[in-house]
Amino acid sequence: MRRWLPPVLAAIMVAVLAVALLRPNKEAKSPRVGKPAPDFTLVTLDGQPFRLQDHLGQPLVVNFWASWCVPCREEAPMLGEFARDAQNLTMVGVVFQDQPDAARAFVREFAVPYPSMVDRQSRVAIDYGVAGIPETFFIDASGVIREKHNGPFTREDLWNSARRIGVRF
């Protein structure tokens, strides 16, 4: 057997495993889908209290993100456009394992038009079953999680998921 063959085969196996492990599974089902969204109260980056239950009666979108997350940075302009275009929506960002100052800089850099709050001890993320970011939950007007999306969106996926929970544009 040639000497170069084992290292090449090992490198190929490592590459295949890395792609499989690091690629978000957009089809993963959450045990939270079909159940009431866990309520939470956090303080927004500008110091205002936010309680999820106070916003029932219209669709909600909860996006978990961090300033250090490359896919979060890539989807931020589209999420901002989405939030500005939606007519009957409450959208919030929950900052996952990040520093408030870094999150504020992210909000300024991308002109994020919706409130974001730091989940300091990841309690909200745990309640929602967040496994990685970005993750986005689509909650209908009655407070039931209807969809969970793992990883970054295409524009079409985002708008279609929102329409399924009754968002108007």
Helix/strand layout:
Layout: H1 5-22, E1 41-43, E2 49-51, E3 60-65, H2 70-85, E4 90-96, H3 100-110, E5 116-119, H4 123-128, E6 135-139, E7 145-150, H5 155-164
Parallel strand pairs: 3-4, 4-5
Antiparallel strand pairs: 1-2, 3-6, 6-7
Describe the structure.
The chain is of the alpha/beta class. It is 36% helix and 20% strand. It has helices at residues 5-22, 70-85, 100-110, 123-128, 155-164; strands at residues 41-43, 49-51, 60-65, 90-96, 116-119, 135-139, 145-150. Residues 14-27 have low confidence and may be disordered.
Number of helices: 5
Which overall shape is indicated by the principal axes computed on the Cα atoms?
globular
Class in CATH?
Alpha Beta
Structural class estimated from helices and strands: alpha/beta
The CATH topology is Glutaredoxin
Task: Kindly report the spatial arrangement of strands forming the biggest sheet.
Answer: 5-4-3-6-7
Number of domains: 1
- Give me the CATH architecture, please: 3-Layer(aba) Sandwich
**Helix amount, in percent?**
25-40%
Sheet of most strands = 5 strands, mixed
In CATH, what is the homologous superfamily?
A: Glutaredoxin
Mean pLDDT: 89
Low-confidence stretches: 14-27
Number of strands: 7
Radius of gyration (Å): 18 Å
Q: What amount of the residues lies in strands?
A: 15-25%
Q: Keywords, please?
A:
five-stranded mixed β-sheet; 169 residues; globular; alpha/beta; 5 helices
In brief, what are we looking at here?
By secondary structure, the protein is of the alpha/beta class. The protein is built from 5 helices and 7 strands, in the order αβββαβαβαββα.
